Every structure is written in structure tokens, then in C-alpha cells.
Amino acid sequence: MILTEAPVVTAALEAAVRAPSPHNTQPWLFELGPDVIGVVLDEDRGLEVCDPDRREARLSCGAALLNLELAIAVAGRSCDVEFLPEKDRPELLAKVGIGLRHRPTAAEQRLAASIRVRYSNRRPFASTPVPAWARHAVRRAAREEGAKLILLDEVGLLETVAGLIRRADHIQLLDERFQAELREWTREAGSHDGVPAYAGGPRPSGGLLPVRHHGESDRVREFERDPVVAVLTTPTDGPLAQIRAGRAMQRALLTATSLGLSVSFYSQPMEIPSARAALRSLLGENEHPQVGFRLGYGFPGTTTPRRPVEEVTRSRPDSEGLRRR
Length: 325
Known about the structure:
By secondary structure, the chain is α/β, with parallel strands linked by helices. The chain has 2 domains: 7-117 and 306-315, 3-Layer(aba) Sandwich (NADH Oxidase); 132-296, NADH Oxidase, CATH 3.40.109.10. 34% of the residues lie in helices and 20% in strands. The protein contains 8 helices and 13 strands. Helix 1 runs antiparallel to helix 2 (55-74) and helix 3 crosses helix 7 (239-258). The model is unreliable at 320-325 (pLDDT under 50). InterPro entries: Nitroreductase-like, Nitroreductase/BluB. One of its GO terms (molecular function) is oxidoreductase activity. Residues 292-325 are annotated as: Disordered.
């Protein structure tokens, strides 16, 4: 039996599974041992067409890792994170050791409170501008995790990158394998994973950029003609950089949520190698683009479902279970 009844562990796992993932695949497992939670990449839940090298899956696990840490912190415990701790197990992305007492900061409390209410808002945003102070806060959040958040309108690249996103979206629209994979992860109500049709948003009409559509909705809505689009980059690439990028992405998303902002992703150019390379050339060869998203003030929506904690946890082979806290 896997023991998850210790309050701090339960809270940490329930927060971790609220992380975002492509098509809501939830590509993570959590290994429980005495005072340790391992974050494992679940290769079986990867997307073979749009994420064959599991880059986006590692981002998702990095986001889950940050949620895990925040929940432990607000539960009053410290934690110690070790990245890629076992060379012979590359799927083990991190180990989180649960330590002694910790007094949570106001920032930790604010971000942790945003975990359960954050969601991808695939609907049109309001025309209300995103103020400079909010932009700065989201940029600073990414920087705290060693990443850079580039707001395209501020560097004069919005129109150029918009063209790149539209071309990537068109390539995926014509790719039968990609469309089949998208349909596979579009779910009916009641499923614990995938994107429910009700969360897929309307079909886009007009607007500067295409928003990925899930489901067979007949609703058509016009999207923003002047969206705030951000691209998160890292100075290097590879598994460790991708895990860290996922943490930076999640810290930025939770910060945005705490400020009343909505977010949805532009994954198209990240999932086509030639488009990602072109984007890197535009941003600078020292910047590896990891994720793109739009920011704005959205109309209310709902969170998407997650698999139960019991479904994504297992005991470490060398573990006898967790001590109660």
C-alpha cells in the first residue's frame, strides 16, 4: 500500500497534479519514500507526434515540481530539491527531500493559493490592456527560476512571430497524425485527463493569432487583434534546462493568476523543429525558446480535471513507506 495520508504529502501531491501539460496528458508519476518524493517522467503518456523528444513533458514535470515545493512550504516544512539524481534513471527528474519546519513567505502563500484556480483560458480575452507593473511581475517570476520572459510587443517582434505561429498552426492543421492525436486527447465530460470539449473554447475567427481548438464546437468567436504574447527562453537546452524552464513557466503562470490575469498557450511553433529554430534565430542564438503564451484579462472559465493522486503515485523499490507527519 502506498501511504499518502501524511497531510504534508497529500497536500503536495494534490498540488503537483494541478500543473499544466500538453493536451492535459499529465505525464508524471510520483515515487514515495521516507521523507522523499521523486518526480518521474511517465514516458507512456508522452505525445508521439507533437512531443516525440518529451521536451514539453519535462516542462510539465518541472511545473509539477514547483507546485510540490510550494505546497510543502505552505504546509510549514522546508524541502531540498535534487535534479536528475540518478544517472542510470534519466526518467527520474528530481527528488524532493522534506525537511524541518519552515515559515512560508507571503509570496509562497500567494502562489500556492493560485495553484487550484489556475487554468488555460482558451476563450477570447477582454480588450483591457495589461499594465506595465503586471508585465514586470510576470517577467520577474520567470527570472527567479533562471529563465527569460520576452514580451514580443515590447521588442517589436509580435507581427513577425505571429506569422511564424500561423504557419506552424497551418502545418499542424494539415497533419493527419497530429489531428488524430489531438482528437485522441479531446475528452467527453467525466474523464480525468485530456481536454474536455467544454474547455476547448470556441473556434477562432479573426484575431492576430490562432488559438488551438479542441472538440467539435460550432461556436465561432473573434479573438484579440493585439494580444500580449510572451515567449519563455532558457540560455541552454536539454533535460535539466527543460525541467527548470517548466518551473519558470509555472511561477510565471501562478504569478499571472494571482494578479487576475488569464493565460493560454501558443505551442505550435515549439512543436515543429524548423519553426522553433526560426523562432530562436529571431530571439537570438543565446535564447532557447521553451514555451509561448498569451496574457490578458479573460472571462471566467473552469479548470480541467486531473487524475486522482492514487493513480499517479507508487512506492520507491527501496522504501517501506512514509513516516507520518
